[in-house]
Amino acid sequence: MRSVAIRFGQMLLVLWAVATLLFFLFRLMPGDPTAAYIDTTFTAEQQEALKKQFGLDRSLPEQYALYFGNVLRGEFGTSFRSKRPVFEMIFEVLPNTLALTALSITIAYIFGVLVGAWLAWKRGSIAEAVGIPIVLTLRAAPEFWLGMVLLAIFAFGLGWFPSGGANSAGADYGSTLARMTSADFLHHLILPSMTLALYLQGLPLLLMRSNMLDVLQEDYVMMARMKGLPEWRILLMHAARNALLPVVTAFALGLGASVGGNVVVETVFSWPGLGRVLVDAVASSDYPLAQGAFMFIALILIVMNFVADLLYSVLDPRVAHG
Amino acid sequence: MVEVAAQPPVLSRKRKLPSLMRALRLPEKDPLALIGVTIYVVFLLVALFADFLAKDPLEILFLDDGNLAANLGPSLEFPLGTTNLGRDIFSQLVIGTRSAFMVGLTAALAVVALGTLVGLVSGYFGGLVDAALMRLADIALGIPFLPFVIVLAAFLGPQTQNVVIAITVLLWPNTARVIRSQVLTLRERGFVEAARVAGSSDWRIIRVHIAPNILPLSLLYGSIAIGWAILTEASVSFLGFGPSGSVSWGGMLQDAYASQALSRGSYNWFIPPGLCIVLVVVAGFFISRGYEEVLFPKLKD
Q1: Dihedral of the CA atoms B162, B164, B165, B169 (nearest 10)?
Q2: Which residues of B touch A259 (CB under 8 A)?
């Protein structure tokens, strides 16, 4: 329990540090610091109200205190371009990003674990000699380029899938849930999630393989062999269970990192998600929106790092007591 | 790092590559590591002799009949065809090798230098210094990588060095953590103890007794970092925050994407730059696997 409290404290420390970094980062940008929240196209009253809300007429320490108060209340200001609250805009696209990330990482990890275990079993065979370089090559490919190739072949060449977006234009759904469970949404989801899955599968695959190789040399596997158990049973019931532990941790880490890493894939497929919002906001100097989107991506990453840490000690008690 | 230029010239051509691998402390018999080193050598030669291989990559070309030489397929004159603005794709590809190596090598060098230094200090001295440095590593790992690079490149200006700085600031902790744990075990070994008893200073022990033992580990992380840096720079360029005016593989892909090369099916435009990135990055992975076999030989049997 004590170690959990320490880890939680460390997580809060990291969150605080990243939020502070963001505060200073967004005062680095070109021009007047008030430019972070106030655009010249706002009316005089709007400008006054925003200045007050974010304390832009006060000293830096006061601004810093106010900034934290605002961040804790989820108050990120108003987008320059759309004039809408940043919080609302982020929550609108968050489900799209989560759907894309969850689907692609699940496919990647199921595939990676199965093929990784199989390749460990086939140690020294042709399958290994061919498989490992292929996996490494896929991992070396830039995500956005994989996406471009898939787009050119399957969307523009064969016409099987739409070339971008999350829904067909003009379609109207009653709720977010209805929209995200529609066949149209799934049709749009396939190419981007395949791209991400192709990129993500390398890590679980290689991790599973090397864990399996380690585990297969343990005494209890030898014991199972001596008992005369069938090979598949040793593989699944004895070896794979333990080899999976680090993969579970990697899954949590990967989920957190992928939300931020989606940036390029979302851009290639014009997927209306958090990453694309960030890119568009930075490109158009929409500072409040960029800051809010960055904060959210960081929050997800840091919380998932913490979850991975916890999972690791829960699944492998040796870590907690070592 | 991959100091390819340092190879002794007296050796016969056939033996050059294995001796290069020995110099890098790589296993000569590892086919993947050999392929990796070969890819690096070839691309490095292309980067060095780019001026002889390529024409001006940004020159707008015209056909004999006076029309713009736009969207041409591969031909003898233009081995990979031309862009929609009539620029030679092959020349862009060749010149792009330079910026890839510039970013890859400088960023990898910076990441490994900083990571190794922090790992050495943290592991050797321990205590408060160690705790402070490791918390700093936690913080760096809590910053979303690509978003941070984008924001920094957008705010500080889209120069290559800003991308390199952003990569360095975020990637050092991985190297530092591994080096640190290695130093922790080395510190307790007999030869270090003996040096301490003999009156060697801390810095001398680090320099003479510990640093040489972690060199392969640094090279391992360096060979991976080259790939990450090139991938990151390509992503940043693709998103439109890359250095303007210079030709890079990521920039070529952005150009192709924005100019509807995908819907036109101009595979000759967007396949080659991506393949080059894949080759250079995978070469780093292959080499790093070679180091793993040197460092952790138990996986070999």
Answers
A1: 140
A2: 144
Query: Which A residues, 158 through 187, put their C-beta within 8 Å of a C-beta on chain B?
Result: 163
Distance CA A311, CA A319 (A): 10
Contacts of A267 in chain B (CB under 8 A): 238-239
**Closest residue in A to B287 (Cα–Cα):** A136
| Complex ipTM value | 0.82
Give chain A positions within 8 Å (CB) of B156. Answer: 28
CA-wise closest residue to B219 among B8, B20, B25, B44: B25
Nearest CA to CA, how far is A180 from chain B (Å)?
26
- Residue for token pair 């960023």: B107
What residues of A are in contact with residue B148 (Cβ under 8 Å)? Answer: 294
Q: Where are the domains of chain B?
A: 21-49+82-295
Give pLDDT tens digits along chain A (322 positions).
667 888 888 888 888 888 888 888 877 666 555 665 666 666 777 777 766 666 666 677 777 787 778 778 777 777 777 778 888 888 888 888 888 898 999 999 999 988 888 888 777 788 878 888 888 888 888 888 998 888 888 877 777 877 777 676 666 666 666 667 676 777 788 889 898 998 888 888 888 888 888 877 788 878 888 888 887 777 777 777 778 877 888 888 888 888 776 888 888 888 888 888 888 888 887 778 888 888 888 888 888 888 888 887 777 666 555 4
User: B278 and A261: CB-CB below 8 Å?
Assistant: no
Among A265, A286, A258, which Cα is nearest to A76's?
A286
How many cross-chain Cβ pairs, A to B, lie less than 8 Å apart?
147
The yes or no reply on domain B21-49+82-295 and CATH 1.10.3720.10 is: yes
Q: Which residues contact A92 (CB under 8 A, 6 or more apart)?
A: none
A5-39 b/e (C-beta count within 10 Å ≥ 16 → b): eeeeebbeebbebbbebbbebbeebeeeeebbbbb
Q: What is the pTM of this model?
A: 0.81
Distance from CA of A288 to the nearest CA of B (A): 13
